Amino acid sequence: MSSILKIDRLSHRYGASWAIRDINMEINQTGVVGLLGSNGAGKSTTMNIMCGVLNQTEGHVYIDGVDVREHPEQAKKNIGFLPQNPPVYTDLTVDEYLTYTAELRLIEKSVRQKAVAEAKERCGISHFSSRLIGNLSGGYRQRVGIAQAIIHKPKLVVMDEPTNGLDPNQLIEVRKLIREIAKEHTVLLSSHVLSEVHLLCREVVMIEGGRMIFSDSMDAFNNYVQPHSVLLRMENPPPEAELKAIAGVTRVELLSDRQIRIYFDGSRDITERIIASSVQNGWRLQEIALDKSLLDDIFKQLSNQSHQ
Ligand SMILES: Nc1ncnc2c1ncn2[C@@H]1O[C@H](COP(=O)(O)OP(=O)(O)OP(=O)(O)O)[C@@H](O)[C@H]1O
């Protein structure tokens, strides 16, 4: 059986400069896969090629076994695309716009209205059928954008930064909708926000500077995001050796006479052991805080590893 998406040594350059180099990816299941990368990493370029909007310089993209460049019409039957700026027409009503997109997707006239009704229902916009898109909030406009992406029931739905610019309530709602959609479709979404990918995705692909630097499950990715150091403030800190003796501690860094950073090997109960030792030995612990890895640090760490 063919993969839902297979990307094989994909590269693209604009003029003389390469935007992406040698991207490889394979997805075989439903669920959400995140394409994570900072601004300018190459996410939109990859997605635009995947969806047949841009012709690559080198490499291949197969959707359900069909080469997007060689057989675009056939491949696009199984792709839904929500670009970074949703292609919604603000002077059309929701019904007019979705009927138009159903037509573009070559859905037969006899079943077009049914397809529009189903897409509206799934995206929670049935009650806005005759509302002008220009009069909808950002969150609802995004739902209309998602509705056009699933109207022809594609196997793969590609969403370029789908939650960008939404307010916190809209964010929660749109995330919920993406999770729903991902029960039946494979969703590939891009983001430059680590927490977004964390909340939604089963797998993560990271690109930086146009190169793929990580591709694995969310659990594997978490190993990089989990804190590996803790910041302490103590009124009566012990000699370094006593802190090093706590199980799991790998390194101790004295920041000032009361502030200390402790590096540990990933065991989650380290804070409990530090607190217990402090109470037992009278170190008078005042503050303890886990250092979360910053996205920039993770990018750096992974980039270094992939270049070694
Ligand atoms: N049409 C274009 N012409 C020339 N260079 C481009 C063009 N589009 C993108 N680039 C360059 O290609 C690189 C990758 O851009 P791309 O838009 O794919 O990144 P991105 O990860 O989607 O970033 P963002 O989140 O900012 O959209 C960047 O250096 C960008 O400046």
Please supply descriptive tags for the structure shown above:
308 residues; alpha/beta; Alpha-Beta Plaits; 2 domains; six-stranded mixed beta sheet; four-stranded antiparallel beta sheet; 11 helices; 29% strand; binds adenosine-5'-triphosphate
Task: Describe the model.
With 308 residues, the chain is α/β, with parallel strands linked by helices. The chain has eleven helices and 14 strands. Helix 3 packs across helix 4, helix 4 packs across helix 5 and helix 5 packs parallel to helix 6. The protein is elongated, with a radius of gyration of 24 Å. The mean pLDDT is 90. Bound molecules: adenosine-5'-triphosphate. The site of adenosine-5'-triphosphate has 11 residues, from helix 1.
Brief digest:
With about 300 residues, the chain is of the alpha/beta class. The protein has helices at about 45-50, 70-75, 95-105, 110-125, 140-150, 170-185, 195-200, 220-225, 240-245, 270-280, 295-305; strands at about 5-15, 15-25, 30-35, 60-65, 65, 80, 155-160, 185-190, 205-210, 210-215, 230-235, 250-255, 260-265, 285-290. The model has no long low-confidence stretch (mean pLDDT about 90).
Note the topology:
Layout: E1 5-14, E2 17-27, E3 31-36, H1 43-50, E4 58-63, E5 66-67, H2 72-76, E6 79-82, H3 94-104, H4 109-123, H5 138-150, E7 156-160, H6 168-184, E8 186-191, H7 194-200, E9 203-208, E10 211-217, H8 218-225, E11 229-234, H9 240-244, E12 249-254, E13 259-264, H10 270-281, E14 285-291, H11 295-307
Parallel strand pairs: 3-8, 3-9, 6-7, 7-8
Antiparallel strand pairs: 1-2, 1-4, 4-5, 9-10, 11-13, 11-14, 12-13
Helix pairs in contact: 3-4, 4-5, 5-6
The structure holds adenosine-5'-triphosphate.
